[in-house]
Amino acid sequence: MSEKALLKPYNKGNFTLRNRVVMAPMTRSRAANEAKKPEEGLHDIYYQQRASAGLIITEGSQVSEEAVGYINTPGIHTEEQLEGWKQVTEAVHEKNGTIFIQLWHVGRMSHPDFHDGDLPLAPSAINPEAKSYTPEGFKDTVIPKAMTKEDIARTIEDFKNAAQNAVKAGFDGVEIHSSNGYLFHQFFNATSNTRTDEYGGSIENRARFFFEVLDEVKKVIPESKIGARFNPSLNGMFGMTMDEETIPTFEFIIKKLDHEYDLAYIHLSEPFNDVSKIPFAVENIAEHFRPMYKGTLIINGGFDQDSGNKVIENGHADLVSFGKLYVSNPDLVERFKNDWELADWDEDTFYTPGTEGYIDYDTHKKEESVQ
Ligand SMILES: Cc1cc2nc3c(=O)[nH]c(=O)nc-3n(C[C@H](O)[C@H](O)[C@H](O)COP(=O)(O)O)c2cc1C
């Protein structure tokens, strides 16, 4: 059984994990408190229950108030939030787990209701024409404010400050959420970034903001503890529309990371929807990008145990991250190991407050003993 690729320990550079099963970042909207901090008896338990993963990547956590776009998401920019996260890292480390925090800025995927009526920030004043889930329910997104140079400089500082807080809170590393149509992705994509300054126009310019953030974050946490997430073929979701420069932009970024940086990992997603009819899209992300990146590559998106083992065995990825399976299977590693049945997740409680659908999914043994 120890032959299974997903269950083998992972050792590359100074990145050592006890298996290759990664818990993907998932917003669960349980920080239903004024401080937007992880809560004792809730977040610490949730992540501790899943600590046998080789690596846990937390839910997206905002780097500032400006970065918020969803209700009850935790932050990592205040002392109180940092203290809340400490309980989480301690709980995971108690079980010998490894945990990175995902640093998040939603950019234009937000609503003035989150910002005292101010407009959300974005590279350009272009409405994503999406929905924002506000405290009063779904609302249409608006035309955001095009970020000034000062806004950009402040946001870079916010990421650095958040990374510093992550170190203080005891995280093993940070993942920059440069994926899924949020702020960095909005800079990368020509349909959301029409800037004419050094942050827009060419591929290199559209990638500049990401690398400036990375270079600042590197000052407070070693590169070997920084990951970055990308969803190159995201199209028709989260306000993203691909064009002929989209894939070349991700190729530029990933090759630059390969040549000039030594990150903990890059974390790629296979397309979220059918892109077979999109001429600019790449359908097999791991296969396409693997030859461009020598470091650790995590692949995500619709994997199960069999396809996860296969993608590692055929050399397209080093690690596989699982999202929804981790909602309902806290002991996913043990279930894989023993070929135990997997429990189904309940979408209705993905984002609801409290313990239900959050920390009440049983481990396999408990399920057995109930029967
Ligand atoms: C409830 C839920 C919340 C999510 N929140 C985030 C998030 O905060 N950050 C992120 O990068 N991806 C987020 N995702 C995407 C997942 O990380 C993952 O890419 C997606 O679920 C596909 O993987 P899967 O097929 O293994 O579930 C979320 C997905 C779900 C289902």
Question: What is the element layout, followed by pairings?
Answer:
Blueprint: E1 10-12, E2 15-17, E3 21-23, H1 43-49, E4 55-62, H2 79-94, E5 99-104, E6 121-122, E7 131-134, E8 137-140, E9 145-146, H3 149-168, E10 173-176, H4 183-188, H5 203-217, E11 226-230, H6 246-260, E12 265-269, H7 285-289, E13 297-300, H8 305-313, E14 319-322, H9 324-328, H10 332-338, H11 364-370
Parallel strand pairs: 3-4, 3-14, 4-5, 5-10, 6-9, 10-11, 11-12, 12-13, 13-14
Antiparallel strand pairs: 1-2, 7-8
Helix pairs in contact: 1-2, 3-5, 5-6
The structure holds flavin mononucleotide.
Domain NADH:flavin oxidoreductase/NADH oxidase N-terminal: 6-339
Pfam families: Oxidored_FMN (PF00724)
Protein name: Alkene reductase
Report on the architecture of this protein:
With about 375 residues, the chain is an alpha/beta fold. It has 11 helices and 14 strands. The strands form 4 sheets. An 8-stranded parallel beta barrel has the order 3-4-5-10-11-12-13-14. A two-stranded antiparallel ribbon has the order 1-2. The protein has a two-stranded parallel ribbon with strand order 6-9. It is globular. Bound molecules: flavin mononucleotide (FMN). Flavin mononucleotide (FMN) binds next to strand 4 and helix 9.
